Amino acid sequence: MKLAAVKGFRDIQAGEVLARRAVLEASCKVLENYGFEELELPLLERVELFQRTVGDTSDIVEKEMYTFEDRDGSTLALRPEGTASLVRAYLAAGMARSQPEGRFYYRGPMFRRERPQKGRFRQFSQIGAEMLGRSDPAADAEAVTLVADICEAVGLREYSVELNSLGDDACRPAYRKALAAWGEARIDSLCEDCRSRLQRNPLRLLDCKVESCREAMQGAPMMVDSLCDDCERHHGRVKELLTESGVEVTANPRMVRGLDYYCRTAFEVTAAGLGSQDAVGGGGRYDGLAASLGGPDIAGVGFAFGLERMVLAAAGQEPGAPPVDIVVAPLEERALGVVLGLARRLRRAGKRVEVESPSRSLKAQMKRADRSGAACVLLVGEAELEAGKATLRDMVNKADHAQLIELDGDAEQVIKCIGEAVKGGA
Ligand code: AMP
């Protein structure tokens, strides 16, 4: 029996690895331009970290975490998200004092036991950023602007940034009650999930995809209409700043996000070409999070993008494999040592070099060299060994230059010689 990968866990093939790298590099560049520093965080955390922050009634904590008991009896979880870990790390390192307005980003795999489908896996990767110690609306506006700039840099097609306010401890409890009462009155139309969410997490009724639930929630009260004065002012200013600085967002009063720690600003980015899992990223403000971990009352706003969905949404622009510059072809077993030495020098000088195998015929080696797209092949057979010079085959102009390249020449000299012989070559 062949052993298969675990359901929802996937192998990532070479082409996709390159596409992921391109997306990550573009995103990191933008983040660094905005003054964010990268932190590396562990994959395992104590389960309480997520129970206290993401929330006991969230889908993530309730049914999606991979947890296990460690040998010392503590319960650990494979991290389902990065914000809680980052804030924990920030507090642990005393950065609340040393970098009270810290800007950090992280990337790496996250684990959630969701039902796998297109764009939804049990191990997926995120790149996320957190701006700590800022409670002013300008921080929210800057986070949304940064999100839009990452989408642009990555080349997402037809993306849209949706914005909402989820209120705070002053106004959300009353709103939750009103929403639960609305759902209660229409309980017969609600799906199983929504019925069980009614008391525990009624906000999620708003983003249920089941048609009868959507109909039942038509006309339900919206958080944005029930904000307290402070939240209203904050939300108004965020929208104003975005408009004035020319960042396009769409108001979506039904967008609630699946994690409990958000307050006030919440946003989500959707993109075309993703099917039903069309959220590429999301985030918002989480002012109570640091305090819920026993730290000082530090405000924060941040977001995370899903790497797999970014790659899917940017599809069509995947980079190919980096092109091969030079193929070195040993025609005799005896030539192999010299050829490997030459290839090493060229590689150390930054060239991408492929070394052929002398067990293949000249014809087979040339066929492979042709497919590699290299501009030139350095052939080393009996005569070349004798002369101490490789023959250069110009693959662009289909011409041979017999015994032209010094076999023990330094890389710079060899590259110069190739450049002169091959027009538009290596
Ligand atoms: P969240 O941490 O739930 O706010 O998710 C942020 C982003 O991570 C989403 O917009 C997705 O792009 C991505 N994401 C979340 N869950 C998954 C999953 N199971 N598979 C793939 N990507 C995911």
Characterise the protein shown here.
With 426 residues, this protein is α+β, with helices and mostly antiparallel strands. The protein has two domains: 14-171 and 227-313, 2-Layer Sandwich (BirA Bifunctional Protein, domain 2), CATH 3.30.930; 326-424, Anticodon-binding domain (Rossmann fold). The chain contains 16 helices and 16 strands. The chain has helices at 14-33, 47-53, 59-64, 83-92, 95-98, 137-154, 172-184, 192-200, 211-217, 229-244, 289-292, 307-313, 336-348, 362-372, 382-387, 411-421, and strands spanning 37-38, 44-46, 67-69, 75-78, 103-111, 123-132, 159-165, 250-251, 263-271, 279-285, 300-306, 326-330, 353-355, 376-380, 389-394, 399-406. Helix 13 packs across helix 16 (411-421). It starts with 13 loop residues before the first helix and ends in a 5-residue tail after the last helix. The structure holds adenosine monophosphate (AMP). The site of adenosine monophosphate (AMP) has 17 residues, from strand 6, strand 10, strand 11 and helix 12.
